Amino acid sequence: MTGESTQRASDAAQAAAEELAMVVRRLIRRLGSAPTGGLTPAQRSVLLRLEKDGASSTTFLAIAEGVRSQSMTATLKSLDALGLIERRPDPGDGRRQIITLSAQGRDRVARDRRERRSWLAEEMDRRFGPEQLATINEALSLLGELADQRPPGPARPVAADPGSGPSDASVRAVTAPSSGGEPSPPAHERLSP
Known about the structure:
The chain is 52% helix and 8% strand. With 193 residues, the chain is mostly helical. It has one domain (12-147, 165-176, 184-188): Arc Repressor Mutant, subunit A, CATH 1.10.10.10. The protein has a two-stranded antiparallel ribbon. Helix 3 packs across helix 4. The longest helix has 25 residues, at 103-127. This is Winged helix-turn-helix transcriptional regulator.
């Protein structure tokens, strides 16, 4: 609902929206704290960002994850030692490296996602009965319809920052602010599909 709207949400819809936002945040944190097979949250977040956004540089990853370049360098060094990323020189700037997921990194992200989904399904089976699960699935279907609606206003494009990033055209900037002017949250704080 926009601030300029003449129609006000019902009290029930307002309460549901507030509760949903809180529950989603808590669930994201809970999924983020699920076992990661020995990866730190920062390592997992970088892998997810590389999977989602593609090739990047240390600088872009640091900005996108909200950390200093030195911290990102250490995270990338550990991921490289595990064989989860690949580095190659930026053809336009030999001082810079382009970072991508390795085949092993892609496999690790996929496995981690499967394990988290499995954990969530097991927790839901343990805590809820068949009727409750049916209610959850019905609510998710309704929320899916809401999520599939196109929001009013123009879509927010993600554009590279000319002159400050890798010259490789396949590398996209991941630092475009959201509609609220804030950078997107680290990947470990986003609910992965």
